[in-house]
Amino acid sequence: MKPLLQFKQVSIYHPKSDNTILNEINFTIPHGEIVALLGPSGIGKSLLAQSIFSLLPENLKMSGEITFQAQALTKAKRGRDLVLIPQSVEALNPLMKIGKQLHTLTNNKQKIKNTLLELGLEESIMRSYPFELSGGQRRRVMIAMALVSDAKLVVADEPTPGLDMEARQDLLQLLLKIKEQKKSLLFITHDFLAAQQIADKIVVLKNGSVIDCIVREGCAFTDESFSHPYTRALWRALPEQSFTCE
Ligand SMILES: Nc1ncnc2c1ncn2[C@@H]1O[C@H](COP(=O)(O)OP(=O)(O)OP(=O)(O)O)[C@@H](O)[C@H]1O
Ligand code: NI
């Protein structure tokens, strides 16, 4: 089966200073799977997410190609088939009530109601503006937007920053709902533990390149999954090294 999304030799660079931030990135996102994009802060994860949506800062350029179902990504496909949950919870439109923001993605009122319920949000939240909500509620609303949309791919940029252990586990469960809907998820994170809890594949970025691409074998990642010394060291540093299917 053709991958849903494919990065082909994608480089992101600053033409004026000749500075290459990401160099010839190649990886695929299969249908219905969770791919974690893992790497330290400042490596270029958000830029890679922005490149999918053609949202790179104007002073940066991209070379190479990103294909969707083996075809070039068009504006129409970006609008219909892809949805971005940005890194900042400030990304919700501050001037539009939550209900209206959800309605821009679907006319199906029942679907919105069910989704809010599933995410533990009161229906009354629809009448609120983003500034009236807590950070956690806003992040849930952003996940609700991804769930009510008809997108085939959700890109979640760093959805678990600064959460305590319990809130983080809750959020990972919410991200799994995206997969339950048979959507693919690109989960951008520097949280290795979270990545291997929910991902089917982990793509590791370091020094501008993909240094490792680890595929879950059956239910869990194992000691053999990690070949690169860097990822092996990350794996060995984890408090617990076996996660199995529930
Ligand atoms: N407009 C820009 N012009 C030049 N360099 C930029 C620009 N935007 C980002 N960068 C640089 O590109 C690098 C990657 O930034 P990016 O935000 O993608 O990192 P990240 O991996 O998402 O980090 P974090 O985990 O902290 O969110 C950084 O070193 C940043 O300074
Ligand atoms: Ni980022």
UniProtKB/TrEMBL annotation:
It comes from the Bacteria. It is an enzyme of class 7 (translocase). It is a peripheral membrane protein. Coiled coil: none annotated. GO terms for molecular function: ATP binding. Keywords: ATP-binding, Cell membrane, Ion transport, Membrane, Nickel, Nickel transport, Nucleotide-binding, Translocase, Transport. It catalyses: Ni(2+)(out) + ATP + H2O = Ni(2+)(in) + ADP + phosphate + H(+). Its main location: membrane. Gene3D superfamilies: P-loop containing nucleotide triphosphate hydrolases. It is found in: Cell membrane. Residues 5-232 form the ABC transporter domain. Pfam families: ABC_tran (PF00005). The keyword Secreted does not apply. Its EC number is 7.2.2.11. InterPro entries: AAA+_ATPase (IPR003593), ABC_Ni/Peptide_Import (IPR050388), ABC_transporter-like_ATP-bd (IPR003439), ABC_transporter-like_CS (IPR017871), P-loop_NTPase (IPR027417). The keyword Nuclease does not apply. PANTHER family: NICKEL ABC TRANSPORTER, ATP-BINDING PROTEIN, OLIGOPEPTIDE TRANSPORT ATP-BINDING PROTEIN APPD. Belongs to the ABC transporter superfamily. The complex is composed of two ATP-binding proteins (NikD and NikE), two transmembrane proteins (NikB and NikC) and a solute-binding protein (NikA). This is Nickel import system ATP-binding protein NikD.
